[in-house]
């Protein structure tokens, strides 16, 4: 290069990139506990406060002044809230079903001990506070014409309650229109974020001698927040919430932990909620920018049996069984990794879930038979039409269903809410070899069956975020009638897929009421007489063979006409 010529500029070094942020540790993420929001909301107007904190702070102080000071019995609860004894017992039973600790005395109490034992006052006020929660509404359906006239409106309230009947709602809102698990979690986190200051003030305690302005949290009080929030993906089976908090994590178990200022607790939880919402936002953004039929980010769907069947492990232990149509489907204990199952939008099918569970939800199903093994906490059945549900459970809630029959072995009164029509209840009618072992595992008592004592609450759900005309909110839900004993039949669960282990159950563990037992014995006697008559019919051997062949042909025709032949092919194929 010629002398005097300027040197060419050196290429600027590439700016150093910041290292990518570390992936969030799943065990350190804050999540809302979904159970109180999905199974703990009751449509009892006196439990829904316009200003919860103004109502519940004085209520807590009043209850603390009554012996025993830390627990609230059913009678005191009924008197304080001005509700009936039945509703007070319902509050205690519902709270027990969603508590975060299985060691709580209310969870472990025998049915005749619940009223006198009562609930811990901190758990109770938190439970009452979230009765103000409003559920996330389903997204608007895109094709209203496609769902028109699916279900004729027969209720005088249909025009008030919604433009769609329950099945229309379920059919028009498939998973991409229903709130996804991510959307619901974000909604619940936003609720907790908005109400965190009130929730903290409900549990905090004043420092002795310093007045109400100086509030602190003991480790015991902090643990009660575990009713609403949790860390990691294991839910209530994970670490205690106090061990996730830096101010209690290293406390000496043999020494009382030093109380922490309530402001510090508030700020730490708030920061964790904000972080979780940011992560959810990052997960949702790709879905919104991707194809319209992309899968929810928290549910990796996998094929199972026919192509129309979708079964997937959901977030934090829930298993989703979705979109089964004209098929049969079996899930056993070895197939389920979590303790919660959701059966969504299944039609014209038979579904067997032969496993011990804590929670089960059946939503938007029609023309189906669904068998639940043993559910130790709660079952919710919602927006279903012409479905037969067979369940052994601690408690069952039925919401906005039509022309359904429920064969129940249930330890608590079945709860009926919403816009229901032509429901029937009947005693439990099946068994499988491991049923009694599963019932023992989750705490269901075969000697207690309140299938025929349904408790009907309000027709309108105050948690649905909809506005309703004056007077409609006071309407009571249509209850369920008892199935005619002459219509009662046993349901046989095929045993050829019980290969993993054989249990000891050889019959229905729930005793049948006399009327149903008499009807069953009469049917068995009639069947025996018909068999005897056929055996003794005075025909030549070739004519007997023709008769037997004709009976087989008629039975095969019935299998095809009823659709039951599909069960044989699908289950044998499994």
UniProtKB/TrEMBL annotation:
Residues 306-444 form the C-CAP/cofactor C-like domain. The lineage of its organism: Eukaryota, Viridiplantae, Streptophyta, Embryophyta, Tracheophyta. PROSITE patterns: C_CAP_COFACTOR_C. Belongs to the TBCC family. InterPro entries: C-CAP_CF_C-like, CAP/MinC_C, CARP_motif, TBCC1, Tubulin-bd_cofactor_C_dom. Residues 1-34 are annotated as: Disordered. Residues 1-25 have a biased composition (Pro residues). This is TBCC domain-containing protein 1. SMART domains: CARP (SM00673). Keywords: Cytoplasm, Cytoskeleton. Pfam families: TBCC. The keyword rRNA-binding does not apply. It comes from Eucalyptus globulus (Tasmanian blue gum). GO terms for cellular component: spindle pole. Gene3D superfamilies: 2.160.20.70. It is found in: Cytoplasm, Cytoskeleton, Microtubule organizing center, Centrosome; Cytoplasm, Cytoskeleton, Spindle pole. It comes from the Eukaryota.
